[in-house]
């Protein structure tokens, strides 16, 4: 491809997004560049502190459990307190708890602080996604989510390499560096990002003029959305096997940790290289088809691992399911926003985030039991089955999904709300979130509209 064409493609990929998005994107990148703890926690506990592998596994589970608990809590905070206060509280608390983790000595204290780190670090995710949906125009959201996902993976790739060198010098230095970079994110949010939460009363106004709050009960009763959450859990179970099932299976097959590192590095490299061009190809395509294809591709990508017998073959399977990941991640997040009322984006994003957090807890248990009892081949076959089930589920569940963002309607207590109106070019900033237009309709008129059930 000529250099001029490459420059034009890059310019088109990043143009048209508001300044506030880029500050949020920068905060995400800085946060992930400093994500050392998750990388070397097990090594820190077993090699530096001398604890058993079982204890290290317990601490990792508590860290994940903290993320599960805080997913919903962070979503509620984002809707009640606002996106900006939630980010400030979560990131400042993460910085303090990560620094503390580098100093605590007692096993119980380490476990408790690890739980706290998992809770505080995960609490910011619903607010980030909700703020991104607030400040970016509907037609640009898939591209924005893709760029954010790209920043996450770029930062993680760099931090993973840096973690090894830092650990050789001092594990505590790694904790303190992560704490400092997380606090830098909080400072960026404080200085550069105004609140983006839609004004109270712009959506959900009922017949009597009252504001219908979007609570967790509203989210749970949203059948279509909870179906998407369930399917995202299945897809997350598959993708988690790249970090929990794959290394175990390769180890049992006689491959070294370095071999696994070489194979899995393909995942990060492909995401960094292909995320933006692939997003340009998919951003205006039918999300239903994209989710069906990516789910099946993920399942069968891992399924092919059963036939891998060399590092090159393992790397090839990683290429297949990484392509599915590149398509699935921004598409799924965009669908979540499309199904979320503006006043409840935090709670909806929190429930979606929780599906991935729960999958991170379940996936290690699933892979361990299946590999121990039946062998790795059965695990990869199960991944193919789960991917097929998820693909069929998306095909059925999203059959009446609106084609465009502005067609999405949510219903609350007999009130049908248009979730977004078209945003004029000058209204893309934080101070001008798209407002929902509410109109009362008779229950009979809702049938067959294609709105959210």
Structural commentary:
The protein is an all-alpha fold. It has 2 domains: 19-196, MFS general substrate transporter like domains (Growth Hormone, Chain: A, Up-down Bundle); 205-419 and 436-453, Growth Hormone, Chain: A (Up-down Bundle). The protein contains 16 helices and 3 strands. It has helices spanning 3-14, 19-33, 37-48, 53-80, 83-101, 107-135, 141-169, 171-192, 216-221, 223-240, 245-252, 257-282, 287-303, 311-338, 345-374, 376-397; strands at residues 409-412, 415-418, 437-440. Strands 1-2-3 form a 3-stranded antiparallel beta sheet, with no helix packed on it. A hairpin with a 2-residue loop joins strand 1 and strand 2 (415-418). Helix 2 runs antiparallel to helix 8, helix 7 packs across helix 14 and helix 10 (223-240) packs antiparallel against helix 16. The protein is globular, with a radius of gyration of 22 Å. This is MFS transporter. Residues 432-445 have a biased composition (Low complexity).
Number of strands: 3
Mean pLDDT: 79
State the CATH class of the largest domain: Mainly Alpha
Tell me about the largest β-sheet.
3 strands, antiparallel
Number of domains: 2
Shape call: globular
Order of helices and strands: HHHHHHHHHHHHHHHHEEE
- Unreliable segments of 5+ consecutive residues: 201-212, 403-453
Please work out how many helical segments DSSP would assign.
16
Alpha carbon gyration radius: 22 Å
* CATH superfamily membership of the largest domain: MFS general substrate transporter like domains
Q: Roughly how many Å apart are the termini? A: 46 Å
Task: Indicate the CATH topology of the largest domain.
Answer: Growth Hormone, Chain: A
The percent range for strand residues is under 5%
Report the structural category.
mainly alpha
Which range best describes the helical content: under 10%, 10-25%, 25-40%, 40-55%, 55-70% or over 70%?
Answer: over 70%
CATH architecture type of the largest domain: Up-down Bundle
Strand sequence of the main sheet, in spatial order?
1-2-3
